[in-house]
């Protein structure tokens, strides 16, 4: 398992631990999205405040918060209907089911396309930010890294069972309630370590610390943990993979944030090349150029 499992989980601590409350969207006759003030990170907001996020869409504060990201802190913010587009984040996903099947012809039946679509609502900024090209590049980049982590969406759990007992950090105040060997790698980005299960579960409103098996038995939960890492964690890098793609840092920075401490800077060029090859292939399937800065 990569050293990213010991990466900081501070980003996830910004998110409330209560399950997301998805209230009905406000009537679509609301004002233009552009009429609302731009969201500002770190600015205090109170319940009822409406802001325009960087994706051009509006969000309403369902709870007071000190400027959390509306596309990540979904307990504090809900999409707010205005004339900027649909409030259903899974509408118009840039990867069709046929393209998904083309990317993963030998995938495990556990990793369903519908499970991925169901997970998108937890991170509405994913593959929905920027131009159509950027949206497709981000989707291709995420799926290329997932492809590498799981052998083409074949593996649901870590194959080296000898590692299983290593992923319990007893220094954490909550310990390992599911057992010493319960926090091995699972899912599309192979979530592991008790503190990562705790952080991901808190962010998603799911008790993954107490029930880590959900990541290998519920396809939507599995996909959500992969999207959680992609959208909120920097790992050994300096930015989240999501930010790397939407801010034009390039695919190489997604590799650095996922497994840079073991692969980048010449440590394992074959593994990096494997990820790049998959990204170029998936970008081609989606009909976009891969962009610059492919390597780390």
Automatic annotation (TrEMBL):
GO molecular function, one term: chitinase activity
The entry's keywords: Disulfide bond, Plant defense, Signal
Pfam families noted in UniProt: Glyco_hydro_19
One GO-annotated biological process of the protein: chitin catabolic process
InterPro entries named among the record's database cross-references: CBM5/12, Glyco_hydro_19, Glyco_hydro_19_cat, Lysozyme-like_dom_sf
Disulfide bonds, paired cysteine numbers: 168-176, 264-296
Catalytic residues identified in the record: 149 (proton donor)
Signal sequence segment: 1-30
Entry keyword annotation includes Disulfide bond: yes
Domain spans labelled Chitin-binding type-3: 36-80
Stored PANTHER family: CHITINASE 12 (PTHR22595:SF79), CHITINASE-RELATED (PTHR22595)
Descriptive protein name: Chitinase
Species this protein is from: Streptomyces populi
